[in-house]
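Hi W.,

Here's what went into the run:
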Amino acid sequence: MSVPVVDDAFAPPSTGWRRVSTSLATARRLVAVTVFGVVAVLVVVLVVLVAPAWAALLAAVLAGAVLAWLWWLIGRQVAAIGYAERADDLLVTHGILFRQLVVVPYGRMQLVDVAAGPLDRRFGIARVQLHTAAATTDAVIAGLPAAEAARLRDQLAALGEARSAGL
Amino acid sequence: MTTATAPRRVHPLSPVAHAGQALAPLLAGVVLAGQGIPFVGRILLVLLALALVAFFGWLSWLRTSFWFDADGDLRVSTGILFRNERRVQLSRLQAVEVHRPFVARMVGLADVRPEVAGGERAKVRIAFLAEADAHALRNELLARSAGIRGDAQEAPVAPERALVRVPGGDLALSMVMNESLIVAILVGGVVVLGALVSGESASLLGLFLAGGIPSVGLLSGFLTFYDFTVAESPDGLRIRSGLLSTRSQTVPPGRVQAVRIDQPLLWRGKGWVRITVNVAGAGGSDDNDAGAILLPVAPYAVARDLLQRVLPGVNLDAVPVHGVPSAARWRAPLQHRRLAAGSDADVFVARSGWLVRRTVVVPHARAQSVRVTQGPWQRRLRLATVHLDSTPGRITPMAAHRDALDARALAEEQLVLARAARRSFRPEHWMTQPPDPGGSPP
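Here's what came out:
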């Protein structure tokens, strides 16, 4: 029972991080492009109506730049999500600018949620959320392949049952 | 397994107590909204409303019953049109509160609130019972929760011993010595002065702001915490307080999830502190201040001794804590000198605060999950914050702005300690278990 040695606050455990499906990035990009694209087209049309052509061109270039940035950002965000099952607890990490690492002991889990919206199902992914008695436990793993989500849920439920320790 | 008990009714005078609680807001409403109505009309209006409240109270009395089911858990059935039956799993009981609102107290009634983890939706209130019955029910709930089963109606009354009693003078003085109150008085004073200089009309409002709002807060705090007593019994801690409405809360052993000791700036001279606790299901997000206060004001030595009763074997002063690197001054310029955290075999301790000095204590056995977070500014300074997640309440334990590497090591250490503590700590059915060797002293 020793405390693991680490060389970085967010260093992966010895088994390394398991990453989530890149389908999550695709799904999120689809949503971002749709929402932002509609807004951008509206803005560009509006600018065309009231301003000279070069302003509209500028608006279009700006919108394109923002879209490219969103595209890149979503990719990085999804790549930053990781989880790892250790002997006694589950580690979940996410975030680039605001980084977070949450460790949930199996004996502390109250319930495990698996959710998949219509878009998630289209891409064959699901999100798994762990709940403890604390509301601040922020352990969500989005973008798990459906089979992996089911496996993780069953695994966590079994481990939680075996180590349950009241509140 | 025992057999279910027969359903019991609440006290027939309950509608009166419910109506009595509605009286004050009704009167205020009629006085404020009924400007055009003659005096007799207003009185009739109030009487009519009271009769309505009492009528629905009577209907709800008819439909309210409670009993213990075959598993020994409490069932409460309520609802006039929509029937609602709640099951309170007593192995999960976190605390029991016996509350006596002023009007109910006048007619000798009290309500019983068993508190289980699960937030607002899980709140159960049995209102109202005769005082003796309320106490008997409380004892029965605690006894069943402690693992003493059986059909015995008469649960053993746990003998109790007073630990702390807050003198009324100290309470009054501590409430006056409050930064926000003094700021409010100063702001109000400025407003009054301005009004006096410029003209008459606004000065009434200023006086109201200066005196009215703070004194209402002061008075309600004083009424709530008057005669605050903490006693110890085998059932757990008994916390009693109140002048007009009174409450008596029983927190079984091991139910305290986190403790915070605060010392506001103005209390330093007196050496006073306040103790706040997190108990799952009690004093959550609602305005019920009292549920989270273990001790409204006391000298530090008294508070430390009380803490030893709440968390047996914990000597707060002996827990080694370590400060934060000097880089933290760029992130927390005011409190970085105070920031410190550490742990021993039993508890995690974190100190913080600038004007109000705070010390948070979390027993390892009660920590939920552990988080390490780092914002962009913290990253530049090579800092990170460690959070120990506790049940919802006033206290959010964290060790802020640690050295980044130290933070991860601290987090991993807490996990190891918590695992060891959980293995040896089982608060359910506390009376049927062998006593804890490090338990409460004689």
